[in-house]
Amino acid sequence: MTWHAPARSPDATAIYAAAEQERTERPDRYRLVPETVIEKASRRCPESLFAEGWQDGLEALLGSADQEARLNAVGIRMVLGMASGRLTAGATVASYRADHPETVATQLRPPIVIIGGWRTGTTFLFRLLGTDPRLHAPLPAELVAPWLFAGPQPPLDPFITAPANVLLHTLNPDMAFVHPSGPKLPEECVLGMGTDLRNWGFTSMLRLPGYSKWLSSQSFGASYVRYRQALQLLATHDDRRFVLKAPAHTAELRHLAAAFPGAVVVQIHRDIVETLTSGSSLFAVYRSTYSDDVDALDVGRQQIDQSELWFRRAAEFRASPAADGVRFVDLDYREFIANPAAALAFVYRAADMEPPTALEQFIADYHVAHPADIGRHRYTSSDFGIDEIELRERFAFLN
């Protein structure tokens, strides 16, 4: 095995050391128990407005994080902040809707939703489509605080530069490479979901086997309804059609289709070995931000198990009558990367939209604005204990 956690800069080392020192001096601030989160969240919003089912979600998340995630002090602070932030976001959306009943009637056109395994080109397609002025690819601030954008006058700084991004890239510069992020870059739906603490996105950042198992038995129906409600706030004074993206939707297509009838669901397919090897590399980097004990073989096992669950669920849904409620578009990863113009034209036809004029130039302009980073993301399947023959046999149901 050759995978190693990214080296930490002197600035990052100082931040981690300060957090550990504070944990030693103020252990009460680093207790992964519901009371810590509830006390913080309740200072901002009444508990009565928290999303239904939040208690079970909070207990499952914190219990797994405490017992299994092997968190450093920065990781503990992140989990506590993430949990309280999701609770207060759900409460604030509910409060805003109650105070502004006109938003409840906001109509949403069927969105374009991009799904697939990790590292299959979903971000590229999502952000490329998001440069079309007719489409609305939500920015991080819009997902985290949609009520700020619901009024006729958006914030003076529509991007709301988030210090969290700056801190994240200081802690782990490789994060900016494996998944470029920032206040001006559209982000995937999981950032705005999980106000009941049910969110597959949490498992991308942390080692949470118990929480993942619990999630697999949960219904996400109410979660998707609440996500639609949050998007209604963004659409109150903005009639662009949403383009959305999250690999995690692959596991929950039944609920996605129910919340967004008529959606155009674009699924990108990539060789399973390439998908899971690259995904394992991504997750290992993510985890190394919040844990000093990342086992690459464990990351590989988690990727395989979770991906099998997601892909089997997607296949079962697509074979069911409920799949008739959405329109599926299948793209082959290699063909998409080799000829993105043809793939885009296919997506636009499925969405009953005319593609941008001068489509090749549209794509070229995107590449100029978002140059690909070359030469830093290196990994092999053996780094994560992936046996290519066994993996292909296990995922033969995809063929």
From TrEMBL:
It holds the Pfam family Sulfotransfer_3. Transmembrane segments: none annotated. It comes from the Bacteria. InterPro entries: P-loop_NTPase, Stf3_sulfotransferase. PANTHER family: OMEGA-HYDROXY-BETA-DIHYDROMENAQUINONE-9 SULFOTRANSFERASE STF3 (PTHR36451:SF1), PAPS-DEPENDENT SULFOTRANSFERASE STF3 (PTHR36451). This is Sulfotransferase. It comes from Mycobacterium asiaticum. The lineage of its organism: Bacteria, Bacillati, Actinomycetota, Actinomycetes, Mycobacteriales.
